[in-house]
């Protein structure tokens, strides 16, 4: 991981810890605008089993799954970590909004299902 990526990750973590609310992250050229072949419309949820915020997110993800397709990706596995790196995901929990196979928005931190459903 290069210095720029580490600084971005540190900034996201500091902001999320200090604000404790939803953080929208638009990473030009890294994540938003990328095409994904394995999901046409829905959400990609990146999580870690060790992540306290991911445990809080679990109930919101379960609610989201009732209304939309959610692809859950555990960054604690080799495959999950590889996908996260390829898409530029730097922290968990991260949720990517996918429309027509294109990532259109990303969220880092705990986000309520109601808020995410407004994106589809």
Structure, explained:
The structure is a single chain. The protein is an alpha+beta fold and about 120 residues long. The protein has a single domain (about 5-115), classed as Glutaredoxin (3-Layer(aba) Sandwich). The chain is about 40% helix and about 20% strand. It is built from four helices and five strands; from the N terminus they run H-E-E-H-E-H-E-E-H. It has helices spanning about 5-20, 50-65, 80-85, 115; strands at about 25, 40-45, 70-75, 95-100, 100-110. The chain has a five-stranded mixed β-sheet, sandwiched between helices. Strand 2 (about 40-45), helix 2 and strand 3 form a beta-alpha-beta unit. It is globular, with a radius of gyration of 13 Å. Mean pLDDT is about 80; it is low at about 10-30.
User: How many structurally independent domains?
Assistant: 1
The percentage helix is 25-40%
What class, by secondary structure content? Answer: alpha+beta
Tell me the number of helical segments per DSSP (H or I, 4 or more residues long): 4
CATH-defined architecture:
3-Layer(aba) Sandwich
Could you list the spans in which at least 5 consecutive residues all have pLDDT below 50? Answer: 12-29
> What name goes with the CATH superfamily?
Glutaredoxin
Overall geometric form: globular
Distance between the termini: 32 Å
Task: Please write out the topology.
Blueprint: H1 3-19, E1 23-24, E2 42-47, H2 52-65, E3 70-74, H3 78-87, E4 94-99, E5 102-108, H4 113-117
Parallel strand pairs: 2-3
Antiparallel strand pairs: 1-5, 2-4, 4-5
Protein name: Thioredoxin 1
InterPro entries: Thioredoxin-like_sf, Thioredoxin_domain
Organism: Thermocrinis minervae
């Amino acid at each position: 991981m290069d210095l720029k990526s580490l600084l971005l990750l540190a900034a996201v973590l500091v902001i999320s810890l200090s604000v404790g609310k939803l953080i929208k992250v638009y990473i030009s050229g890294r994540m938003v605008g990328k095409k994904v072949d394995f999901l046409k419309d829905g959400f990609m949820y990146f999580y870690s089993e060790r992540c306290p915020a991911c445990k809080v997110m679990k109930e919101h993800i379960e609610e989201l799954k009732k209304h939309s397709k959610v692809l859950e990706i555990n960054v604690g596995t080799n495959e999950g970590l590889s996908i996260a790196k390829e898409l530029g995901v730097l922290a968990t929990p991260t949720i990517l909004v996918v429309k027509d196979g294109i990532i259109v928005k990303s969220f880092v931190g705990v986000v309520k299902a109601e808020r995410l459903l407004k994106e589809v």
